[in-house]
């Protein structure tokens, strides 16, 4: 197993939710852990990941660039550079990129 990946060598793909793109560093089948994937994500301004739930997975995000808003349950979190966010399993959540620049982030899921 490779212990490193270069982002420029990873083929971008659509997210499972139909918005934005992702570059997957590692998938669950490549790891000996409860991580479901580790990826770099990018949403263009105005892109939205509609409200959804992961019943058996916590999802963590670290936002690198851009502005956005994350709805986690009934709470609205303003996203900006250097923001960390965790969405616990079973909690509805929705992501929206705002501003004039892409929203860029690293994220990973942990199966429970």
Residue share in helix = under 10%
Mean pLDDT: 97
Number of helices: 0
How would you name the CATH homologous superfamily? Answer: Jelly Rolls
Shape: globular
Would you give an account of this structure?
It is a single chain. This protein has a single domain, classed as Jelly Rolls, CATH 2.60.120.10. Strands 1-2-3-10-5-8 form a six-stranded antiparallel beta sheet, with no helix packed on it. Strands 4-9-6-7 form a four-stranded antiparallel beta sheet, with no helix packed on it. It is globular, with a radius of gyration of 14 Å. It is mainly beta and 112 residues long. The two termini are 24 Å apart. The protein has strands at residues 13-14, 21-27, 35-43, 48-52, 57-65, 67-72, 75-79, 83-87, 93-98, 103-111.
Topology:
Blueprint: E1 13-14, E2 21-27, E3 35-43, E4 48-52, E5 57-65, E6 67-72, E7 75-79, E8 83-87, E9 93-98, E10 103-111
Antiparallel strand pairs: 1-2, 2-3, 3-10, 4-9, 5-8, 5-10, 6-7, 6-9
Task: Summarize it.
The chain has strands at residues 13-14, 21-27, 35-43, 48-52, 57-65, 67-72, 75-79, 83-87, 93-98, 103-111. The chain is mostly beta strands and 112 residues long.
What labels would you give this structure?
112 residues; mainly beta
